[in-house]
Amino acid sequence: MKKIYLLIALSIFTLTSCKKNSPKAPCETNHTGVVKVINNSSNPYTLSVNNVFKIDILAGHFVYYSGKSEIDVFTLQQKSGYIFSPNVYTAKIFVSECDTTSWGPHP
Q: Which backbone phi and psi does 6 adopt, to 5 degrees?
């Protein structure tokens, strides 16, 4: 009888201790997030992140920037359509892991 109780206890322990690990999403493994950069202007803008050119954004369009989960400096500089000097918009944005943040100046 003691052997039966021991066998039942061991089988319950074995069955409850086995947990399947769910696979992590790539953004959790790589610690990345996304920023949606929106150009609401009628002029094209150039996007730079941490003073490194990334892409030109056409008027009324947006782009997705995927980067490490950290604080980055985003800069949008007007490419054309200005008279004396281009409009420049800068923001420090925390790229949240596995999340999408939107940013875009509203001229």
A: -65, -40
